[in-house]
Specification:
single chain; about 200 residues; alpha+beta; 6-stranded antiparallel sheet; 4-stranded antiparallel sheet; 2 helices; 12 strands; about 40% strand
Length: about 200
C-alpha cells in the first residue's frame, strides 16, 4: 500500500512539473473573430505585436478568409521595423494558410518574448491568400504594415488581426515553490521508508 502511495505522489509531482512547462496558448489577439471576406492584394504584411507577458514562443497561429486562396507563407518574428521594413530577425518558419476561417499554424524554434517589447509578425507570399483581418471588430485593433515588394511599406491602423501565440510561460515563483515543496515532502517520505 505504501508503495502505491509513493507512486501516486511521484506521478502527481511529474504532472505538476509538466503543466508548469508545457507548450500551450499563452497569448492571443481577437481569437473569436472571423476574417472578413476578401484576399490580400499585397505580398507582405507585418503585424505589430506587444505582448503583456514574458514567455518562450514556439507557435504562431492565424485565421485566413475563405474568400481567398490557400497558400504556403513565409512567417518571421522580428524585433524592429525600419524605413526599409522589418529588422532583427528572431526566427522564421512557414505556414500553410488554409482559407477556411480556422487556425493555421507556423512552428518555430523557441524564441524568447519579453512583456511590453514590440515585435513584428511578418507574413510573406500573401498575395491572393485570404485575409487574416476583420475590418469591423469588435476586438483589439492590431496595426500592421503592408508592402507589394518588401521595400516600400505602408502603415494601417484599422484592422483587427486574429492571432494565437503558443509556448511555455516562465513559471511564477509560487509554482516553483509548490513543486519544490512537493519534492521535498516526497524525499522525506522516501527517507523514512528506507529507515524503517
Amino acid at each position: 500500500m505504501r508503495n502505491l502511495c509513493l507512486v501516486v505522489i511521484v506521478l502527481a509531482c511529474l504532472a505538476a512539473a509538466t503543466n508548469v512547462f508545457a507548450d500551450v496558448v499563452v497569448d492571443s489577439i481577437n481569437p473569436s473573430l472571423t476574417p472578413v471576406a476578401g484576399s490580400w492584394a499585397t505580398n507582405w504584411q507585418a503585424w505589430v505585436y506587444t505582448p503583456g507577458i514574458t514567455y518562450t514562443l514556439t507557435d504562431v497561429e492565424s485565421k485566413f478568409s475563405s474568400y481567398g486562396s490557400s497558400g504556403t507563407l513565409g512567417v518571421g518574428i522580428y524585433s524592429g521595423f525600419g524605413s526599409n521594413g522589418p529588422t532583427g530577425l528572431l526566427g522564421s518558419s512557414t505556414m500553410f494558410a488554409n482559407n477556411n476561417n480556422n487556425w493555421s499554424t507556423a512552428t518555430f524554434s523557441p524564441i524568447s518574448i519579453t512583456a511590453s517589447n514590440t515585435y513584428y509578425v511578418v507574413f510573406s507570399g500573401t498575395s491572393g491568400v485570404g485575409v487574416n483581418v476583420n475590418s469591423t471588430g469588435p476586438g483589439a485593433l492590431t496595426p500592421y504594415y503592408f508592402s507589394y515588394d518588401n521595400s516600400n511599406w505602408y502603415y494601417y491602423n484599422g484592422g483587427y488581426g486574429m492571432f494565437q501565440f503558443s509556448g511555455s510561460q516562465t513559471p511564477e515563483p509560487s509554482s516553483i515553490l509548490l513543486l519544490g515543496s512537493g519534492l521535498v515532502g516526497l524525499a522525506g517520505v522516501l527517507r523514512r521508508k528506507t529507515n524503517l
